[in-house]
Amino acid sequence: MNYELSQDQIEFKKKFREFCEKGILPRAFQVDAAASFPWENYRRLAQEGFFGLLFPAPYGGTQKPFLTSVIAWEELARACPSTFLSAVLGSILAGTAVYRYGKEEQKRTYLPGLIEGEKLGAFALTEPQGGSDIAALKTTAQKNGSTYVMNGTKAFVINGPLADITILFALIDSRADQQKKMGVFIIEKGTAGFFAGPALDKLGARGAPVSDLAFQNCRVPETQVLSIPGEGLSVARKMKEISRLGYAAYSLGIAQAALEEAVQYARKRQAFGRPIAHFQEISFKVADMQMYVDTGRLLVYHAAWMLDDGMEAGTDVAIAKLFTSEAATWCATTAVQIHGGYGYLKGYRVEQLYRDAKLGEIGEGTSEMQRRTIARSLLGEGY
Question: Would you state the pLDDT for residue 97?
Answer without folding.
Answer: 98
